[in-house]
Each structure stands twice: as structure tokens, then as C-alpha cells.
Design a protein that fits this description.
Chain B: Keywords: Cytoplasm, Isopeptide bond, tRNA processing, Ubl conjugation pathway. The complex is a heterodimer of chains A (356) and B (147). Helices cover 48% and strands 10% of the residues of chain A. Chain A has 13 helices and ten strands. Chain A has helices spanning 27-43, 63-78, 98-112, 121-125, 129-136, 141-160, 171-184, 187-194, 215-224, 240-255, 259-276, 299-308, 343-355; strands at 16-17, 24-25, 54-58, 84-91, 116-120, 164-166, 197-198, 205-207, 284-285, 292-293. In chain A, the strands form three sheets. Chain A has a six-stranded mixed sheet, sandwiched between helices. In chain A, strands 1-2 form a two-stranded antiparallel sheet. Chain A has a two-stranded antiparallel ribbon with strand order 9-10. The chains are: A alpha/beta (356), B alpha+beta (147). The interface between A and B is large, with 51 and 40 residues. The complex binds iron/sulfur cluster and zinc ion (2 copies).
Chain lengths: 356, 147
């Protein structure tokens, strides 16, 4: 096959076939379209960032968050977003998995010159994933891990006075989430999980700037730019149900690459429908730790109580409406506090509510 | 643990190990694949193989391999050079050390594995039909492992 020229600049040799458009592009046009599309996602409408915002990149050392750190650093300079960027990493305490990827994050810290904070499950909850798995087995470890990670990111961000957390979820992840939520019958969550940015009153704003970026392009970008990331599998085999959804998605993508974007669009359509109807439980703060929760106890506190009581996987069933009295000798999660008031928006909201 | 720390020290210089493939390279010294110790014969093609995104774990933990394959597909009437279909099969039969289902599917690679031939997306090169040349570099990157 004769090498084909780039369909954008018509001069250089095409090296990437873009899954979203089928376009054949050369290396430098690929960088430019990839970066520009992320910029467009970020700035569309009101845009997700404000000047002067303190933004933490949830960094795992994997490909997505590494490319995100690279691209955001670059766009912040190129378009002068005026952001104060940080790397925030969570150490789940998984021997032989997280140790290596955290070393990668430390290297990214040097390469991008961004301040790094690492917060561990151990310091926060008094439990590592290794110990949790020892107690609850290998079936539901990801449920514990997911609940704990979400809260850990918020807490790490609060400690740094961060306004906004960005994560590396890519288009393939989004499509997978749509499928997962459908297969679990969780349409309420489907709506929320498709948003580019989510913010409720007491949580820190979260965004997914790679929401429309294909995994293939992220991997290609990392490869061509020779970025440092670490690729490995968690030793606690991830959710098999999710694994099937992933493979199914990749099979669809191989036949028709637009499947990914099509599924995301389907997911977004659910959002619209849903904004009409309400009925989500009202939010309050956890009586024990002060974290946002729809029950007296937040999920993390309930799970922790189960673990501390020595329960195995029945710890998952631990109720969230227990009295706020901590059984004697149990560890609890430190109180969740946001040292810096939620900047301007928060104040504006407060003023508005006074005016009412 | 000491080993990990040592590895990281060497990675502090991005030029040494930032390969964009998701593994920590110790040095750029060629890993000696089983077949690379043998000097290439006249009627063979030398192909450089690299595995990224965690795929090297399936190939004796070695990211880089230099392999020699015949310059004509054996036992075939076709006078043709081996193509990518032949290479994928060859890798499965000769180099893959574990969990074959994580690499191959049918006569191709599993969806979710990216392939680059001389740094170009193989989708631009004819995928399985691409005819290999002496000195070609083929990179396989899994997108299926850890974000
Ligand atoms: S696979 Fe499960 S246990 Fe492992 S890091 Fe991910 S969520 Fe945690
Ligand atoms: Zn071009
Ligand atoms: Zn709580």
C-alpha cells in the first residue's frame, strides 16, 4: 500500500486513522485536532473552568490521567485558562499494583512541574485494599474501592483547597458506563454519569474533559508523545460484569467505530428526559463524618462500620440509617470539611437565598 | 521494593525510558527473544516487535523482541512475503507465553489492541493483508488495561 497523505494538511504522511471521523491524519495534525477537540469540550457554552480556579487532576499513573495532565498543562498555557493545576493521587493500598503506578505519578510531577498530593486509604480509613480483600474476599472489592476512592478524592481536594476535580474518563469509559447502568437498571445514575460537569452544593465540582476522546486516540497520543504512564491490571480482578461490557463495546467499535459516540449520545438523551422528573432523594450530610449523603450515614461510613465489625462481604449490606453512635473501638473517618468556602458561586448562592 | 526505587531513579531522565507504551523500561538494551540469539539467515526477515499497554506480560514479561520469520510463507503455494496474518499466528505459536485469549481472536488480534507498523496505524496499512518487509517494526498496544 502506498502511504497516503494526511487529509488535513495534504503533505505529511498519514499515521492515524481517527475512529470518530475515519479521517487519516499525520502526527502533527493528529496532535492539533486532538488537543483542539478537548479545548472545545472544555470551553463550550459557559465552559467548565474559571480563571484562577484550583483544579486537581485525579492522577492514577495510567494512560488517561497522564495524557490529561499533559494536555491540560499544555492548553492552560496555550489558551491562558489561568488555572492552578495539581495532581491528586489516591493510594488504595494494593501491593504490586499501586506502588508502581504511584512512582509514575511522581515522575509526572517532575515532568509537568505540578504539585502532587497522595492520599491513602490507610490514612483516611485505616484500611488498605489488601486488608479489605483479605476480609471480604474478591467478589465485591471494587464496590468498596469505588466508594472509598470517590470520597478520598473529595477529601484530598478539600485539604488542598481545590475547587474542581478533573478525571481522565474517556469516551469508551462513558459508553461502558451507559451500558453498565442500563444492564443494572440504574437509569437514575445514567443521567448523572453522562454530565460533563457535576456539582451539587456540598461536593467539589467534577468534570471529565476527555468525555468525547476515544481511548484509541489517547493511547496513540501517549505513544507518539512518548509520555510516561504505567499500564497494569489491578491484581484483584476487576468486576467481571464490567469486563464483559468492555469486550462487547470493543467488538462493536471494531465493526463500527461511531458506536462509542452513538452510545454516549443515547445516554445523554436520558439526561434530558430525566431533568423533567425529580424524585432523587434529598441530600444531607453524613451524621458521622460530614460527607454529603442521601442517608444518615454516608456509604463509606456504612461500609467502614461493616469492616470494623469484622463482617465479610455482608459488610456491603450494612445499613445507612444506623444511629450515629460509633460502636466502641471502631475507627471512623475524619470529619469532612472544606476549608475554603466554595468561592464566588457559593457566596452568590448564599446571597440569593438570603434575598428570597 | 529496592528494585522499584532503582528503576524509578533511571526513569527520572525521560529520554531513557519514556516510551509511551506504559511500562517502565530498564534500559534500551534489546531483550533477547528466544529466536533473536540466532543470526538471521539469508531467506529470513528480521522483524522488531514491541508490546505496550501491559501486553508484554503475555510475552515472557519482555516488551521488546527481535524475531526472524521466513521470507516466504512455508507450505504455501503463494510466492508471497508473509503478511500480518502470518505474523499474528506466528506470535501466538512461538512467542506468546500465557493467556492466549488476551492477545488473539480469530486470525487477528483482540479488539482493543492497537497495532502500529513502522509507527503508522495498521488500519492505514491494510491490517492483516500488510506484507512484511525486512526490518519492519510492529508495535502492539493494549487499551484494555488500567486507566
Ligand atoms: S479493579 Fe477494583 S479493587 Fe482494583 S483498583 Fe479498580 S476498583 Fe479498586
Ligand atoms: Zn497533516
Ligand atoms: Zn460518613
Amino acid at each position: 500500500m502506498a502511504p497516503s497523505p494526511c487529509s488535513l494538511c495534504h503533505t505529511a504522511r498519514a499515521l492515524v486513522k481517527r475512529p470518530k471521523t475515519g479521517q487519516q491524519v499525520c502526527k502533527s495534525c493528529f496532535y492539533s485536532v486532538f488537543e483542539t477537540e478537548v479545548h472545545n469540550t472544555i470551553t463550550e457554552g459557559q465552559g467548565i473552568f474559571h480563571r484562577g480556579e484550583k483544579v486537581a487532576i485525579g492522577a492514577s499513573g495510567g494512560k488517561d490521567s497522564t495524557v490529561l495532565a499533559h494536555v491540560l498543562t499544555l492548553l492552560n498555557q496555550r489558551y491562558d485558562y489561568g488555572l492552578d493545576l495539581y495532581l491528586l493521587s489516591i493510594d488504595e493500598g494494593i501491593t504490586g499494583y499501586r506502588d508502581d503506578s504511584l512512582e509514575t505519578v511522581k515522575q509526572n510531577q517532575v515532568e509537568y512541574g505540578l504539585p502532587l498530593k497522595i492520599l491513602s486509604y490507610n490514612e483516611l480509613y485505616g484500611w488498605t485494599m489488601d486488608r479489605i480483600v483479605e476480609q471480604v474476599g474478591r467478589k465485591n472489592n471494587c464496590t468498596f474501592c469505588g466508594v472509598f476512592r470517590r470520597q478520598a478524592l473529595d477529601r484530598g481536594a478539600a485539604q488542598l483547597g481545590i475547587d474542581h476535580i478533573v478525571t481522565g474518563h474517556n469516551a469508551d469509559d462513558m459508553a461502558e458506563t451507559v451500558l453498565m447502568n442500563i444492564m443494572r437498571g440504574d437509569i437514575a445514575r445514567l443521567g448523572r454519569s453522562m454530565a460533563l460537569t457535576t456539582q451539587s452544593e456540598d461536593t467539589i465540582k467534577r468534570s471529565k474533559p476527555f468525555k468525547y476522546a476515544y481511548e484509541k486516540e489517547i493511547v496513540m497520543y501517549a505513544y507518539f508523545k512518548k509520555l510516561t504512564y504505567f499500564s497494569t491490571e489491578c491484581i484483584y480482578a476487576p468486576d467481571a460484569y464490567r469486563g464483559h461490557a468492555r469486550v462487547f463495546l470493543k467488538d462493536l467499535e471494531a465493526i463500527r467505530p461511531s458506536a462509542i459516540i452513538d452510545i454516549i449520545h443515547s445516554g445523554e438523551t436520558f439526561v434530558l428526559e430525566q431533568s423533567v422528573q425529580k424524585g432523587l432523594k434529598e441530600m444531607q450530610t453524613c451524621l458521622r463524618c460530614g460527607y454529603i449523603s442521601s442517608n444518615d450515614l454516608c456509604k463509606a461510613c456504612a461500609l467502614l462500620e461493616g469492616l470494623e465489625a469484622g463482617l465479610d462481604r455482608s459488610a456491603l449490606k450494612q445499613g445507612q440509617s444506623t444511629l450515629s453512635v460509633v460502636p466502641e473501638g471502631h475507627r471512623i473517618i475524619p470529619r469532612f470539611e472544606r476549608p475554603v468556602p466554595i468561592a464566588v458561586e457559593g457566596i452568590e448562592r448564599a446571597v440569593q437565598s438570603l434575598a428570597l | 521494593m529496592a528494585a522499584t526505587v532503582a528503576t524509578v531513579m533511571t526513569t527520572m531522565n525521560p529520554e531513557v525510558t519514556s516510551n509511551g507504551l506504559g511500562y517502565v523500561g530498564k534500559t534500551e538494551v534489546e531483550a533477547s527473544g528466544s529466536s533473536s540469539t540466532i543470526v538471521k539467515k539469508e531467506e529470513e526477515l528480521e522483524i522488531l516487535i514491541e508490546f505496550g499497554g501491559g501486553l508484554h506480560l503475555l510475552f515472557s514479561q519482555k516488551p521488546k523482541h527481535t524475531i526472524h520469520i521466513p521470507c516466504q510463507i512455508p507450505q504455501s503455494d503463494l510466492p508471497e512475503a508473509p503478511d500480518m496474518r502470518y505474523l499474528v499466528r506466528w506470535l501466538k505459536e512461538n512467542l506468546l507465553s500465557e493467556r492466549p485469549e488476551m492477545f488473539g481472536e480469530g486470525d487477528s488480534v483482540r479488539p482493543g489492541i492497537l497495532v502500529l507498523i513502522n509507527d503508522a496505524d495498521w488500519e492505514l496499512e491494510g491490517e492483516l493483508e500488510y506484507l512484511l518487509k525486512d526490518g519492519d517494526e510492529v508495535v502492539f498496544i493494549s487499551t484494555l488495561h488500567g486507566g
